[in-house]
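Assess this one:

_____
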Amino acid sequence: MLRHEIRPGRAVAGLVMLALAGGYAADAAGAWRVPWTFFLPLFFGGLWLAATVTWVSYRMRRRRNARRTGAPDSSRGRSAPAR
């Protein structure tokens, strides 16, 4: 099986969009009555959460790779500790 890079931000965005689709489907079926403005904060909040998760995972991956290679961590302006 081929290995690929894990992208947690995309997973979060996908889960949020599935939840929104479920909400819209429940509203269309008449099982749940909410105004359409209810979904806007959830949509933008989900995008913000996905962007934050992506940023954090990118920083963690970058630091982990810098420690493995012994290269300086350019995000802090100092080198990683030698092992």
